[in-house]
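Hi everyone,

Forwarding the result from last night's run.
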Amino acid sequence: MKVLSITEPFATLIKEKKKFIETRSWKTDYRGKLYIHASSAKIPKEYLKNEELRTLVNKEDLNFGKIICKCDLVDCIYMTKEFIEKVKSDNYKEYICGIYEEGRYAWVLDNIEPLEKLIKAKGQLNIWNYYSEFEIMDLMDNIEYGWVDKNNNKYKTVDKTFLDNYILQSPKEIIKNKVGVCWDQVELERFYFKANEWNIKTYFLVHYDNDKCPTHTFLTYEKNNKFYWFEHSWERFRGIHEYNTIKELLVDVRDKFINYELNNKYRKSNLVLHEYKKPKYHISVPEFYNHCDSGNYIDFDEL
């Protein structure tokens, strides 16, 4: 769903159907459904000084950092002197809820509906996308397991050339190429989840055997005091798995990895788990290993 972040109290004025025009310095060609997100930014000082504006909304009704309503963006009008004078004379309350200057744009909103359940989210600039975890899984279904080499050749299986020729793709490249191993797919998942405030973490699980060194990367998130393993690339366990604790989650992924990927042939000391941050794109296999190994080491015995 497309989202527009707006500072308070202006987002709430839209939700309460007291404001139907959002004024911007830039034009948009987008028309259609739009979520309104009340940003986490402080209330502008000019609002605090404007007595007329302050009478339109109760401070207790404000909701910072949440998607609060949906609407239709039906028009984007270039502001002329005549347009500004018409808004000011026909609907003065609307006029004081925006910045009306020649050369700016009036985004016209219609069919405003407050959400019954508000959605916590991180705001972004411009019009941005918000996805639920289920929508993200649907988007991930467009991606097949595979990889891309330095020359942008695509492969559906990991062969002997992988070690020397693989590069980590950016999210946009994964969407375009429609292939990615778990390392790539986690970065696309990270990209889709970035607007959510669910304590997103990514993990690198590897068994160092001086041969194949099998690995798996995966993404987790915390929501409503539950922990979730979001899995797409590992087809056997594709889905969203719920746990009561992060320990329960990590142990379950570890045990499945041992059972299905290592066939129970492993040494405990060789199996390593790290929490890792977003890596640089276009890095090689050794560089990706080094990046993940420099992350936060997870000791299963101390969880």
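The first strand starts at residue 2 and ends at 6.

Cheers,
N.
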